[in-house]
Amino acid sequence: MELTWYGHSTWHVTVDDTELLIDPFFDNPHTDTDPEELDPDYVLLTHGHADHIGDVDRYEGSGLVATPEVVEYCEDNFGEFDAVGGMGMNLGGTVEIGDAFVTMHRADHTNGMDTSYGTSGGMPGGFIISDTKPTQVSDEESTTFYHAGDTGLMTEMRDVIGPFLEPDAAAVPVGDHFTMGPMQAAVAVDWLDVDHAFPMHYDTFPPIEIDTQDFVNEVKGTGSDAEVHVLDGDESFEL
C-alpha cells in the first residue's frame, strides 16, 4: 500500500491496482501538484467542508465514497459521479471498491456545507482502508490505513477502531482549533496502537499553524511505540 500526502487532509492511497483519493483540496501550501495530474478510481470524502471537497469537481465520473447527503450535494453542484452503491455509504459500513475494503467510522466534528453552513451533510466520518475484509479474526497479513478525518479525540479509537479494525498506520489531524491538537492527537495514536503515525490538517491557515515537533514529542510522551513520519507535501510512504 502506497500513501502520498498532498497537504492538509488530502491523501492518495494505492491498494494493489486501485487508486483512492481522500478529501481533494490542493489549494494548500504543502503541494505543488496540479489536481488534473491525478486520475483516481475512487474519491473518498470524509465530510462536506470546503477544505475537503474543494477540488472534487476535477474528478467528475470517478467513483464517489461518502455519505448519501454529501453524495447528493456533490452531484447537485459538481456533476455526475459513480457513487458507491448508487447513493453512497454511511457510518459503520464496509464497501469493497476494486482491491480495497473501505470502512467508514464516525468523526467528532461538524458537517455543514456552503458558506452559510445551512446544508447538513450528516455525521462526518473517517475511513479505514485495508487490502483485506475486516473480520473479528485478526489478520497479521493485512495492511490497513486509517484516515481519521477532521475529529476530536474519541474513545472509539481506543475501544473499536484500534482493537477491531487494527490499523497499521494512522493520519490524524494535529492543527488544533478546528480538530485535535498535538497532545490529543498523540493520545489518539497511542489508543489506536499503530506502528506509523502521520500528522495532517495543519499549517494551511493561520489558526492551525503549529510546530510538528510538538506532536512528535507528545507521541513519545504517551509511551507509544509508533514512529511519527512528518511528510513533506507530495511525499509518498510505502506501508
TrEMBL record:
<dbReference type="Pfam" id="PF13483">
    <property type="entry name" value="Lactamase_B_3"/>
</dbReference>
<dbReference type="InterPro" id="IPR036866">
    <property type="entry name" value="RibonucZ/Hydroxyglut_hydro"/>
</dbReference>
<comment type="similarity">
    <text>Belongs to the UPF0173 family.</text>
</comment>
<dbReference type="GO" id="GO:0016787">
    <property type="term" value="F:hydrolase activity"/>
</dbReference>
<dbReference type="InterPro" id="IPR050114">
    <property type="entry name" value="UPF0173_UPF0282_UlaG_hydrolase"/>
</dbReference>
<protein>
    <recommendedName>
        <fullName>UPF0173 metal-dependent hydrolase C444_13032</fullName>
    </recommendedName>
</protein>
<keyword id="KW-0378">Hydrolase</keyword>
<dbReference type="InterPro" id="IPR022877">
    <property type="entry name" value="UPF0173"/>
</dbReference>
